[in-house]
Amino acid sequence: MKTVTILSGGAAQGLVRGLGDAFKAQTGLGIDGEFGAVGIMADKLRARTLADLVILTQALLAKLAEEKLVVPFSITDVGRVETALAVRSRDPKVMVKTQGDLREVLRSADAIYVPDTKASTAGQHFAKVLDQLGIAYEVASRLKIFPNGATAMRELAASPAARPIGCTQATEIIATDGIELSGALPPGCELLTMYTAGVTASAAHPKEAAALIALLTDADHKDLRQRAGFTG
């Protein structure tokens, strides 16, 4: 079966999967590709990895358009995603209303599961939050860093630690079995990221890629986007 190929941030994986049947019914094509840290996905496109469309942060899409790797008029906002906390389904949710609350929650965790702190949106932000809270050195040995949020959350679900916690995009938390969304980061530490889709300049299936973007963003799928963790 022919496929439209995606390079996407992990934040959009659950939403894309949810639209697979509708896309196949409309176009006859399947969906294939990679989901991971946005910086790595952008670099794959720069390295000429074949892809029909990309779903990355708004800032990265703008850069890729400037580099003539994405068709500018195709760029469309999908929605915003919070960086949030996660716990295993069997553990109590944590209450984090202030930066002080977050500091104590992280200090009390014996394992902290996060995505790539250099290439992923949530991972980069979490590293900054640790510095902001003044506990980066204190908790460094407890950080469990994985290539992307989806992997970090699967590892959290299987963690043998007594008091583990995770932090990544809310969409990746919602899409992972065995863990629960435990709330957004508190004021002063929060991050709400706009994710944006665009057809690549080298797309083999540009019309079908544009059709998938239309499905991702149309009003009929607003509820699906919300269930996946996207906000308006």
Provide an overview of this structure:
The protein is α/β, with parallel strands linked by helices and 232 residues long. Helix content is 40%, strand content 27%. The radius of gyration is 18 Å and the shape is elongated. The mean pLDDT is 95. InterPro entries: ModA/WtpA. This is Substrate-binding domain-containing protein.
Question: How far from one another are the termini?
Answer: 34 Å
Sheet bearing the most strands, described?
10 strands, mixed
Low-confidence segments: none
Q: Bin the helical content.
A: 25-40%
Average of per-residue pLDDT values: 95
Q: What is the N-to-C order of secondary-structure elements (H for helix, E for strand)?
A: EHHEHEHEHEHHEHEHEEHHE
Q: How many DSSP-defined strands?
A: 10
So how many helices? Answer: 11
What spatial form do the alpha-carbon principal axes imply?
A: elongated
Strand content: 25-35%
Global Rg? 18 Å
- Helix/strand class: alpha/beta
Please render the helix and strand layout as text.
Elements: E1 3-9, H1 13-18, H2 20-27, E2 30-36, H3 38-46, E3 53-57, H4 58-66, E4 76-88, H5 99-108, E5 111-115, H6 121-133, H7 136-139, E6 143-146, H8 149-157, E7 164-169, H9 170-174, E8 179-184, E9 192-199, H10 206-217, H11 222-228, E10 230-231
Parallel strand pairs: 1-2, 1-3, 5-6, 5-7
Antiparallel strand pairs: 3-9, 4-7, 4-8, 4-9, 4-10
Structure keywords:
27% strand, ten-stranded mixed beta sheet, 232 residues
Quick description:
40% of the residues lie in helices and 27% in strands. The two termini are 34 Å apart.
